[in-house]
Amino acid sequence: MSEQFKQEGGENSDRRAFLKTGALVTGAALAPGVLLYGVAHSRAPEEGASSKVRWGMLIDTTKCGDGCNDCVTACNTENGLSGKTGPQDSQWIRKVDIKDLRTGYVQSLPMMCQHCENPPCVDVCPTGASMKRADGIVLVDRHTCIGCRYCMMACPYKARSFVHEPLTEQNPDVPRGKGCVESCTFCVQRVDRGEQPACVEACEANGHKAMIFGDTMDSESEISKALKSADSIEVRADLALNTGVRYQGI
C-alpha cells in the first residue's frame, strides 16, 4: 500500500509579468522541494524534503463524531484562520456529510487538500506557485502566486481558498497574504519540526483517534500498518491522483 502513495488587489501588470518569468529561476535557485515557502520554516534550506518519505493521512470515519469540529478548530488556531465559513473565508479543513442515497445513511468526515501525487493544481499553475515537495506535501508559495485561481478551479476537492482581505495577527510560521490562494499544508511547519499536524494532535487529545499521520513509505510506521490491516479508499479514485489522504469506513 505504501508504494501506491507514491494579488489580485494591488498587483500591477509589471509585477505579474516578472513573477511569471521569475518563478522558474526562483525554483532552480533553491533545493528541491523548498522554494520560498520552505525558507520560512525551521527546516534548513539545504536539507530540503526527501523523496524517501511520503507523508500521508488515514482517517477512520467510523471514529469521526457527528458534529465534532475539533480538527477544524485546531487547524484554524494553528494556521491563523478566522474560523468563518462564508464564501470569501479561508477553510483549510471542513467537515462534510456524505449520504448513501440507497440507505439514507449519513457519514461525517473531514475534507482538506488531499496532497495528490499527481496534483491538478500544480499542472495548471502558470507561475509554479502551486508545487509538490519531494515528500509529497502540496503547497502554495505566496511569493509567486498571482491570484489567478486556476488551481481552485482544477481542484476536485474544493480544498483551496482565496484570501480576499488583508490579514493581521498571523502565525509567523505560516506565511499568508491577500491576493493569494492557500490550502491545507499538513501543518508543514510542524512536520518539519518532527511534530504531528494540529488536526491529528487535537483528534487524539480529545480521545477520538480518528486520524493517523505518518510516512507511508516506512513499513514500520503506524499509518503503513493501519493501511495494510484494513481497506481504505481515495475520494474520487477514478481521477487516478493517488492521494496522500485515505479514508476508512466509507
Kindly list the characteristics that best describe this protein.
250 residues, alpha+beta, Alpha-Beta Plaits, three-stranded mixed beta sheet, two-stranded antiparallel ribbon, 8 helices, 9 strands, globular
Brief account:
The protein has 250 residues and is an alpha+beta fold. It has one domain (2-248): 2-Layer Sandwich (Alpha-Beta Plaits), CATH 3.30.70. The chain has helices spanning 13-29, 35-39, 70-79, 120-124, 150-154, 188-191, 198-205, 222-229; strands spanning 55-60, 93-99, 106-112, 130-132, 138-140, 161-162, 181-182, 211-215, 245-248.
Overview of the structural elements:
The protein is of the alpha+beta class and about 250 residues long. The chain has one domain: Alpha-Beta Plaits (2-Layer Sandwich). It has eight helices and nine strands. It has a three-stranded mixed β-sheet with strand order 8-1-9. The protein is globular, with a radius of gyration of 18 Å. Residues about 5-45 have low confidence and may be disordered.
